[in-house]
Write a structure and sequence with these properties.
Layout: E1 2-6, H1 10-21, E2 27-32, H2 36-45, E3 50-52, H3 55-59, E4 66-69, H4 76-85, E5 89-92, H5 100-113, E6 117-119, H6 127-137, E7 144-152, H7 162-165, H8 173-189, E8 195-201, E9 212-218, E10 224-230, E11 239-244, E12 247-252, E13 262-267, E14 270-274, H9 281-293, H10 303-322, E15 326-327
Parallel strand pairs: 1-2, 1-4, 2-3, 4-5, 5-6, 7-10
Antiparallel strand pairs: 7-11, 8-9, 8-15, 9-10, 11-12, 12-13, 13-14
Helix pairs in contact: 1-9, 4-5, 5-10, 6-8, 8-10
The structure holds NADPH dihydro-nicotinamide-adenine-dinucleotide phosphate.
NADPH dihydro-nicotinamide-adenine-dinucleotide phosphate (NDP) binds at residues 7-11, 33-35, 38, 70-73, 93-94, 120, 122, 159, 161, 176, 257.
Length: 333
């Protein structure tokens, strides 16, 4: 498959270029940057055949099969719609767009054009999360009653740009991290919140955008979910806990890009340390995407999954700014 990168980004450089190349049949034939010089330098550094600033020209290449979009969030929609219109398959970064309605428009366009649109929610691909899902589905903790998500970290200095000072580019911890947590909890439970409440804050990093938020979600089954996302905590660990009628799953360091962490099952029989696969999360995302393009199953996270996670983040933002309890609007999905 011939890939084009839309966005000369950090995430592509650090994870996706190697993940795409982990499949021997893949080639990256072009990269798009808004800056010609930066794009050329990026192409040279990463051994990509060509660079361009012209989206239409990039997409007009008949040899191009798929694009990976990892520009800042406000660009995802028009770039995805252009790629879809050109008949290309699209793996798009989260959040899919700036609004749920825009993300839905992307999903509808892809379905109409018969191309794959996937969301790069990497956590679903982690060995730890695949194992947690298996434990819950097998009834090892009984009926789930409550979930706690600990996803407040310290934003690396190299990423302290648009994320902390540019709401128009999709900055703020809610679009950045709440979408991942909504997707992950939805993946494990098979349901998404009916309503949410939240309080946000702008502490040492946020300039005009929130850099931390805590929220509570009520699921259709009645399960309560408590989450904490942040950019400013230097020494906190991430984690995810599921508490059920027969046991609990307690995890540490699993809300991460690396295949690391600990998963513990606690029941009346005692505490069991759960082993899981340490495969690369992004390579699995690419593998599932390519399977979907070949007509074999769905991507790990579909476009619709991206709409759902964005709908939850939008409701959390609304709840945090209005101080009210907000019903999540999934736009009819
Ligand atoms: P970056 O800030 O690295 O890249 C975003 C854009 O900023 C690029 O497209 C590029 O524009 C421009 N840019 C990047 N580096 C420089 C530089 N040194 N000088 C000038 N401009 C620069 O963002 P991220 O890679 O962190 O995030 C990109 C997207 O990926 C976001 O949507 C984010 O939410 C998502 N993401 C997803 C993750 C996941 O695990 N699923 C993890 C991290 C990010 P141009 O292309 O025009 O050159």
């Amino acid at each position: 498959m011939n890939w084009g990168l839309i966005g000369a980004s950090t995430i592509a450089a650090e994870h996706l270029i190697s993940a795409i190349r982990s499949c021997a049949d893949n080639q990256i034939i072009s990269v798009l940057s808004a800056n010609a010089e930066r794009g050329a330098e990026y192409a040279k550094t990463h051994d990509i055949m060509s660079s361009t600033t012209d989206l239409e020209a990039m997409l007009a290449d008949p040899d191009l099969d798929a694009v990976y979009i990892s520009t800042t969030n406000e660009k995802h929609k028009f770039q995805a719609l252009a790629a879809i219109a050109a008949g290309k398959h699209v793996l798009c970064e989260k959040p899919l767009a700036m609004s749920c309605a825009d993300a839905l428009a992307m999903v509808n366009a892809a379905e109409k054009a018969g191309v794959v649109l996937a969301t790069n929610h990497h956590l679903r691909n982690a060995g730890s999360h695949l194992k947690i899902k298996e434990l819950i589905a097998a009834g090892r903790i009984g009926d789930v009653q409550a979930v706690r998500v600990f996803h407040a970290v310290y934003l690396p200095e190299s990423l302290q740009g648009w994320r902390i000072n540019n709401a128009a580019a999709g900055g703020g911890v809610i679009p950045d991290i709440v979408v991942h947590d909504a997707d992950t909890v939805g993946f494990h439970l098979g349901e998404y919140p009916l309503e949410v409440t939240a309080i946000e804050a702008s502490g040492s990093l946020g300039q005009g955008v929130e850099d931390s938020v805590m929220s509570v979600w009520k699921m259709p089954s009645g399960i309560l979910v408590q989450t904490h996302e942040g950019f400013t905590l230097r020494h906190a660990e991430t984690g995810l806990e599921f508490h059920g009628t027969k046991g609990s799953i307690i995890t540490k360091n699993v809300m991460t890009q690396q295949p690391i962490g600990q998963v513990e099952l606690r029941t009346a029989d005692g505490v069991e340390e759960i082993k899981f696969s340490d495969h690369n999360l992004y390579a699995r995302s690419i593998d599932r995407f390519m399977g979907a393009v070949a007509g074999q199953g769905q991507p790990a996270a579909t476009g619709r999954d991206g709409v759902r996670s964005l709908a939850v983040a939008a409701a959390v933002k609304q709840a945090a700014t209005t101080g009210t309890r907000v019903a999540v609007n999934y736009g009819g999905l």
